[in-house]
Specification:
By secondary structure, the chain is an alpha+beta fold. The protein is built from 8 helices and 13 strands. The chain has helices at 15-18, 25-31, 68-76, 118-126, 131-134, 142-151, 159-176, 254-261, and strands at 3-13, 44-48, 56-60, 78-86, 102-104, 107-115, 183-190, 195-201, 210-213, 217-221, 233-234, 239-243, 250-253. It is globular. The relative contact order is 0.16.
Length: 262
C-alpha cells in the first residue's frame, strides 16, 4: 500500500512534514509501519500551490529515500497547501505518469488502495471517463481513472457525491464480474482551497488514515509522523473528511453518499 500526506494551513516549508519528522513520509517510504508492505519504493510525487491557481508538482521513479532533488525541493519550497505521496505499485507499471499526485486544472488528487480485479474491469472503468476528459489520461492506474471519471461527474459542485457515484458504479461492475477482491479507497483531494480525504473499502479493512488539526493548520496522513498517536485522530471507516476553507471540519458518510448515487 502507498503512503501519503496532505497539508493545509499557514505556509511552511515542505521539509517540515515530508522530511524532518521522526516518522516522516520519506522514512515511511522505506519503513512503513501500518501498511501491508513496509517499503514504498515505486516512485513518489509532491504537489503544491503557490501564486497560481494550478498546482506545481514533481514526480520521479526513484525511491523517495534516495532522491537528493526531493530533499532540496522540500528545503526550498514553502506552501500553504501541498500533497506528498510514496508509491507501492499494485499491478500497473512503474512509470512517472503513474506516480501521484494527479492534477487537472486547479484540482489535485492522490490515492492509496486498489480496485479488485482491475485487470478484468479496466476497459469498463476507463469507459467512465468521457471524451472531454480522456485526453488528460496520461497513465494506466485505477487511481487516475477514478479521478478523471469523478471530474466529469460534478466534482467541482460536490466532490464527495462525485466520488461516491464513481465508486458505486465500479462496485456494481465488480459484483457483475464476480470479483472477490475488495475495492479499497483511501484518498485526498483538493482544489487549492478546500481539502477532502476519503477512507472507504468494500470490505471491513480500509487503509489507515489520520488527521491532526491545530492553530497552524490540518495535516492528513496514512501514518502519524511521530510515535505519539494521541496527537492524531483516526478518520472513521467509511467516512469522507471535508475541510472547507473557513469552516469547521465535518465527516460525511460515504455509504450514504453511495446509496444516493446508486
Amino acid at each position: 500500500m502507498c503512503r501519503f500526506l496532505a497539508y493545509r494551513g499557514s505556509p511552511v516549508f515542505l521539509e517540515e512534514l515530508v522530511a524532518a519528522p521522526a516518522h516522516s513520509l520519506i522514512h515511511q517510504s522505506l519503513h512503513a509501519e501500518e501498511a501491508k508492505t513496509g517499503t514504498n519504493g515505486d516512485g513518489f510525487g509532491i504537489g503544491w500551490y503557490g501564486a497560481r491557481a494550478e498546482p506545481g508538482f514533481y514526480r520521479e521513479l526513484r525511491p523517495a529515500w534516495s532522491d537528493e532533488n526531493l530533499l532540496s525541493l522540500c528545503r526550498q519550497v514553502s506552501s500553504h497547501l501541498f500533497f506528498a505521496h510514496v508509491r507501492a505499485a499494485t499491478g500497473t507499471a512503474t512509470t512517472r505518469a503513474n506516480c501521484h499526485p494527479f492534477t487537472h486544472g486547479p484540482w489535485m488528487f492522490m490515492h492509496n488502495g486498489q480496485i479488485g480485479g482491475y485487470h478484468l474491469l479496466r476497459r469498463k472503468i476507463e469507459a467512465l471517463i468521457p471524451d472531454s476528459h480522456y485526453g488528460a489520461r496520461n497513465g494506466t492506474t485505477d487511481s487516475e481513472a477514478i479521478f478523471l471519471a469523478a471530474l466529469a461527474r460534478g466534482l467541482e459542485r460536490d466532490p464527495v457525491g462525485a466520488m461516491a457515484s464513481v465508486l458505486s458504479e465500479i462496485v456494481t461492475m465488480m459484483k457483475d464480474a464476480r470479483v472477490m477482491e475488495p475495492l479499497r479507497f483511501t484518498a485526498a483531494l483538493t482544489n487549492g482551497e478546500d481539502l477532502y480525504a476519503f477512507r472507504w473499502a468494500s470490505d471491513t479493512k480500509p487503509a489507515t488514515l489520520y488527521a491532526r488539526e491545530d492553530d497552524n493548520g490540518i495535516v492528513i496522513v496514512s501514518e502519524p509522523l511521530d510515535h505519539t498517536k494521541a496527537n492524531w485522530q483516526e478518520v472513521p471507516r467509511t467516512c469522507a473528511l471535508v475541510a472547507k476553507r473557513g469552516e469547521k471540519i465535518v465527516m460525511r458518510c460515504m455509504d450514504e453518499a453511495m446509496a444516493l448515487a446508486a
